[in-house]
Amino acid sequence: MRESGRMQRYLEPQLLRDLACKTVVLTGARQVGKTTLARQLMERFERAQYLNWDVPADRAVLLRQSWNPAAKLLVLDEIHKMPAATPAALRLACTTSAPRMAPRWTSA
C-alpha cells in the first residue's frame, strides 16, 4: 500500500501501536530496510531524533547522553557498535524524558 507517495511497510501499523506504550527494538538481516522503516516512523511523530553511531557528531551526542529531551521518538541506529554498552544505552534512553525509542540494530 502506498501512503503519501511512499510504500507503507507491513510492520508499520504494529510498530506505531507498540511505540505508543513501550520501547521497540527493530532487528533483522542486513539491507532489509530497518533504517528506512525507522525513518518512516519518525514522520509520524511531531518531534523525533535520529542518531547514528557511525556518524561522529551523533556518536558524541550518544556518549554525552545529550539527545533532545523533548523528542517523542528517539531512533538509535547502529547502536550495537557502542562498545559493551548496548544494554546500558537502552536503559539510559528508556529512562530519559524521551518517552519512546526505536533503536535500529543490525546483525554483524
Question: Can you put this structure into words, describing what you see?
Answer:
This protein has 108 residues and is α+β, with helices and mostly antiparallel strands. The protein has one domain. It is built from four helices and four strands. The strands form two sheets. Strands 1-2 form a two-stranded antiparallel ribbon. A two-stranded parallel ribbon has the order 3-4. Strand 3, helix 3 and strand 4 form a beta-alpha-beta unit. The longest helix is centred in the last third of the chain and has 10 residues. The chain is globular. The C terminus is likely disordered.
Quick gist of this model?
Residues 104-108 have low confidence and may be disordered. The chain is of the alpha+beta class.
Give the terminus-to-terminus CA distance: 31 Å
Structural class: alpha+beta
The helical percent reads: 25-40%
In DSSP terms, counting alpha (H) and pi (I) runs of 4 or more, how many helices?
A: 4
Which value, in Å, is the CA radius of gyration? 13 Å
Q: What is the strand tally?
A: 4
Largest sheet: 2 strands, antiparallel
Q: Overall mean pLDDT score?
A: 77
Q: Looking at the chains present, what oligomeric state does this protein adopt?
A: single chain
- Uncertain spans, ≥5 residues at pLDDT below 50? 104-108
State which percent range the strand residues make up: 5-15%
> How many domains?
1
Q: Order of strands side by side in the largest beta sheet?
A: 1-2
